[in-house]
Design goal:
Length: 209
């Protein structure tokens, strides 16, 4: 996935929210359902995904020393999460990456949970594709078979999908594909190549209770 620098404002988190994450939620779930195969890996993947997003936000906020100019153009960054950590692609210096990862974890712990969601995440694109396909099939089935009617239906489906997918993608990220990294501990950050031979940094993590 690729990213672009966008304004980011966290909301006040002081009000009670029954859906708000809490530090032991994943650890408690794992303790209760430890017999479920792959559960720990899934929980780690969701937390790593959030940390990847938070790290990109932090890199986007960094400025060159002595200036207000952003250190990185986020459109040059990309990421790929796994249950062991995440790959970060782009012109990133290791020192800045280390700072960004640590700062992201710190701000998550301070309650800035919106850092887990990023508007250019691949989840949003997947949601848009699924929504467009579903609406297109639905309108095709419901409307008369005439070519003009079908074409109008496809246009309507595409328009509705473009309007709905950003908010729906955010919800999917917030509640399905990411989780606040309460249980992640950074073990190493090093340059490497991924399975496709692309150069990247890998941020390696471990689970802690």
């Amino acid at each position: 996935m690729s990213y672009s620098a966008l304004p980011f404002n966290t909301e006040t988190l002081g009000n009670f929210d029954p859906t708000a994450p809490h530090p032991t939620q994943d650890a408690d779930l794992l303790a209760q359902l430890h017999f479920v195969p792959g559960l720990k890996e899934l929980l780690m993947l969701r937390q790593v995904h959030a940390l990847e997003h938070g790290t990109v936000w932090m890199l986007g906020e960094m400025a060159n020393p002595g200036t207000s100019q952003r250190l990185l153009d986020n459109e040059s960054l990309g990421g790929l999460s796994t249950d062991r950590g995440f790959y970060l692609y782009g012109p990133v210096h290791k020192i800045n990456l280390v700072r960004a990862v640590r700062l992201a974890l710190e701000r998550f712990k301070q309650g800035e949970w919106d850092l887990a969601v990023h508007p250019r995440c691949g989840t949003n694109m997947s949601v848009a594709m699924v929504l467009t396909t579903g609406l297109a099939l639905g309108t095709s089935w419901l409307l008369p078979r005439g070519p003009l009617t079908q074409l109008a239906g496809l246009g309507l489906a595409a328009t509705m999908a473009s309007q709905l997918s950003p908010d729906l993608g955010t919800l999917v990220q917030r509640y399905l594909t990411t989780a606040i990294p309460f249980n992640l501990e950074i073990t190493d950050i090093y340059p490497t190549t991924d399975l496709w031979g692309r150069s990247a940094y890998f941020v390696e993590v471990d689970w802690r209770e």
